[in-house]
Amino acid sequence: MENFIQEEKIHQILKEKKNPNAEEVRKIIKKGLEKKGLTIEETAVLINTEDEKLLSEIYDAAYQIKEQIYGNRLVFFAPLYVTNACQNDCLYCGFRSSNKELKRRTLTMDELAEEVQILEDMGHKRVLLVYGESQKIGYLAESVKTVYQTKSGKGEIRRVNVNSAPLTVEEYKILKDADIGTYQCFQETYHQETYQKMHVSGKKTDYFWRLYALDRAQEAGLDDVAVGVLFGLYDWRFEVLALLQHSEHLEKKFGVGPHTISFPRLEPALNAPMSIDPPYPVSDHDFKKIVAVLRIAVPYTGLILTTRETPEFRRELFNLGVSQVSAASKTYPGGYKDSISHMPEMEQFTLGDTRNLDEVIYDILNMGYIPSFCTACYRLGRTGHDFMEYAKPGDIHKFCTPNALLTFAEYLLDYGSDKTKKKGLDFLEKEKSKVDPALLPVYEKKLEEIKQGTRDLFF
Ligand code: SF4
Ligand code: SF4
Prior knowledge:
Oligomer: single chain
Number of helices: 21
Bound molecules: iron/sulfur cluster
Largest sheet: 8 strands, parallel, barrel
Number of strands: 11
CATH topology of the largest domain: TIM Barrel
Helix content: 40-55%
Structural class: alpha/beta
Shape: globular
CATH class of the largest domain: Alpha Beta
Number of domains: 3
Strand content: 5-15%
């Protein structure tokens, strides 16, 4: 099978672009600000920039691009771990099959529904179902159906994204029929030798089966696919350029690149040696650079930040281009019902941010961000290529803002604490000025309907 990750080429580019001069860096930043993305060579220049003055110019550019494309919105989601049973043995993960101390649990559909209700009662509208790699497609499809069918009061989950083991095209078609939103499958590391070392047994030892997972998903009609790297396994510079090569491969073959990129950093997990002592630890300084450089290199691809990072660091990263965040997460099956923030004998990794959803929302309001629970695009068929047709000329922005405000109004009315409600309602009034004037009358009408009790209104 052809490896579209050209390792030699990546190493060579990183070497050639070492110690870039200020003029070259500034030329690339200027091009980045045109929001047309960067080549791999240009990205390598930014990656290799060490001068603090130039770095702050890179951060400023990332911030400007984020502001222009995504505005001051942050879309919220919650991961929902359905099972921690796994046939693979990845040296960095607490769910690895050889971890005999881990308590294994696979939720029944009733238990899953209980977890969903708890998330709905918090105000979540998007979940990401996460499965250890051992489940059959029938279970996956049934669990997606259960999430959509479970309602609590005015709460419902409107978009179910999935993170699962790589599947066959036929199996992906079943997920497509179950109406999933984005499909995620992370390569973890694109460096083949490292990949083989980290994956000791099970189907995950097959680098190419995983590398082509998103091709098969696209062939099955899942056109919102998501890539990701687990930073800390190999040199982050290599991984960033490899992510771009993966993105280019998808764009070339299917006409659309990944919908989102995730960039988790290794966090300690029970009996997972590589998580405690990562071979290539990524410092906060470098992590900031990863987020900012990705924002400039692939401006229209969503960047997802999880609760692995601490609240303080998350605040810094929001300004560098993150567009989606998780909050109040639990990383083991049944975790929301247990309501215990740290459960080493069951969880995949340790969390850095354990605040509840309302606390995170209050915090980001203070930073001037609009929390969004929008799921409109996927429900209107604005996915894959169609989505990019709206996103690239900047047209999506005009829908994102009113949708963020409408879904935030729902949150405030149904779930907001008194403190958040007070602040949030003032904020809604203030942010109204950002709604496209052509949409403003309809927006105001929809907002009034929401105040009267109608739910799920969007553009
Ligand atoms: Fe299993 Fe995924 Fe953990 Fe590997 S990373 S052990 S495949 S759950
Ligand atoms: Fe996302 Fe589309 Fe909603 Fe914007 S309008 S927040 S792109 S779902």
